[in-house]
């Protein structure tokens, strides 16, 4: 059951490509570009202060709406429209021209290099996890601190224990299982990240209030890897093309918005928008 959930989580980071009109809309707001080797590319915009104020206001509204909808799990259709309209409005104010800079090399100043915690998703393969009768969903993360490796993380707890009131009893019975899906990232374009899924790992974080010993290894399952020639056949591209960049290869995500503490992406495959805030690391 946990491995199945882990595979569902594996889609946390792919994303369907943005339409050309949205890509053009994003580019039009930036004005003249400033390029520096090894540094993030920021847009030069005469109205940068106004944009910053507008972005701050939108982010405040988005955070409030995401909290009220329990990361999207309790969102009504109108809630989703409201949140996603604001996220798309925010995407036109993204300060970075090349958010994927340094992903392949794992540069220390890569804009994506951080641990990101989910605050909203509209992807059905993730949001339906909240409807499980046996498991309660804890933190969901995109851990990109070790680029080009990006690890999708989800913490699960028995739902019956989550119904206990806060206090010593709930702490004493705390039981958390962590699922990690490891991917390897590569920039497909200045705003698109391709992904190769490498492994799924399941490990207990705590059992009935007791932390799992550090020497206990996780249950790790390598995922099958397809050769490039087989991928070319699968995705219908020529020998001169890299099949990992094929338009119909669903293993990717588009960066809609990225600043110092907020990330919005749109995934491939099954689609869906994800919004995440920067955090120091995974919860212990």
TrEMBL record:
InterPro entries: PAP, PAP/fibrillin_dom. Residues 57-274 form the Plastid lipid-associated protein/fibrillin conserved domain. It holds the Pfam family PAP_fibrillin. Residues 1-17 form the signal peptide. Keywords: Plastid, Signal. The keyword Transferase does not apply. GO terms for cellular component: plastid. It is found in: Plastid. This is Plastid lipid-associated protein/fibrillin conserved domain-containing protein.
């Amino acid at each position: 059951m946990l491995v199945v959930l882990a595979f569902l989580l594996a889609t946390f980071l792919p994303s369907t490509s943005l339409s050309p009109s949205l890509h053009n809309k994003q580019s039009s707001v930036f004005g003249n570009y400033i390029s520096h080797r090894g540094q993030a590319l920021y847009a030069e915009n005469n109205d940068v202060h106004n944009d910053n104020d507008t972005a701050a206001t939108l982010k405040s509204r988005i955070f409030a709406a995401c909290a009220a909808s329990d990361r999207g799990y309790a969102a009504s259709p109108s809630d989703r429209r409201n949140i996603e309209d604001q996220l798309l409005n925010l995407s036109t104010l993204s300060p970075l021209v090349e958010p994927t800079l340094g992903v392949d090399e794992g540069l220390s100043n890569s804009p994506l290099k951080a641990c990101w915690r989910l605050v909203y998703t509209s992807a059905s393969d993730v949001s339906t996890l909240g409807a499980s009768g046996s498991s309660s969903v804890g933190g969901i993360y995109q851990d990109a601190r070790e680029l080009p490796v990006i690890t999708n993380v989800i913490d699960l707890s028995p739902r019956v224990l989550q119904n206990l009131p806060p206090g010593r009893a709930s702490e004493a019975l705390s039981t958390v299982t962590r699922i990690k899906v490891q991917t390897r990232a590569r920039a497909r374009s200045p705003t698109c990240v391709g992904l190769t899924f490498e492994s799924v790992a399941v490990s207990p974080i705590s059992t009935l209030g007791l932390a799992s010993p550090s020497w206990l290894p996780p249950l790790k399952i390598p995922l099958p890897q397809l050769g490039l020639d087989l991928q070319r056949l699968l995705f219908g591209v020529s020998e001169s093309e890299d099949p990992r960049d094929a338009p119909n290869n669903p293993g990717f995500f588009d960066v809609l918005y990225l600043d110092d503490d907020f990330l919005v992406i749109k995934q491939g495959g099954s689609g869906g928008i994800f919004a995440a805030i920067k955090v120091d690391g995974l919860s212990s």
